[in-house]
Amino acid sequence: MRKEVVYVDNNATTRVAEEVLREMMPFLTDYYGNASSMHTFGGQVRREIDRARERLATLLGASPGEVIFTSCGTESDNAAILSALECNPVRRKVVTSRVEHPAVLGLCKTLQQRGYHVDYVPVNAKGKLCFDALDKMIDDETAMVSVMWANNETGNVYPVVKLAEIAHQHGALFHTDAVQAVGKVPIDLARTRIDFLSLSGHKLHAPKGIGALYVRNGTPFSQFLIGGHQEFGMRAGTENVAGIVALGKA
Predict the structure, then answer these.
(1) What radius of gyration do the chain's Cα atoms show?
(2) Where are the beta strands (DSSP E) in the chain?
(3) In this predicted model, what pLDDT tens digit does every residue of 5-37 receive, in sequence order?
(4) Structure pTM?
(5) Rounded to an integer, what distance in angstroms lies between the CA atom of residue 182 and that of residue 163?
(6) CA distances from 65 to 57, 62, 154 (A)
């Protein structure tokens, strides 16, 4: 007798939804043109990337020009934090929490080895941020404050809209790893002062290998991948069209 599998780890990854799979499949088989090509075959692919970008922007309460497609949440996290340090080299400090994803904590550890200063905001026994400590840590040396929107292990949802306001009061940029929040909690970035937001498709029924980074209009940004003109010149590399279309559908 075949055993039934009951999967209860959707915070780690989700199954690709059937309607998402159907929408992405033609871009693995029939519509395989390069979106950067000048010809019609590539142009029709470009239109689908634009459509997916508009869909995702609507979900986030952003404009399409603020959405950059990436390979995953880790790339988005790294790109946001490194950009803040690159664009403001006078400020060599990052403030984050003790309970971030390894995509943030691992990068911060590497930054410390490179001579940057990182302050880690503690949490209490219930996983709540210690606000008093946070406010004392942010100063004129801080380039970036990075705090996740929702924690994948405890379920805590952090007040990132308020935290973004605090960061800006000190002239720092604010990033949130929203990988566990997008699609689960209401998000309207136009009503916040959040500068960067990371997300990953495989957390909301799109495939692995596709993510996005929100970059607020006017926020200084240093290109993470150097090469072609893709993603408004902010992230070079031939687009993962099938993944992008899938993320838009999801």
Answers:
(1) 19
(2) 67-70, 93-97, 117-121, 142-146, 173-177, 196-200, 211-215
(3) 899 999 999 999 999 999 999 999 999 988 888
(4) 0.96
(5) 18
(6) 8, 8, 33
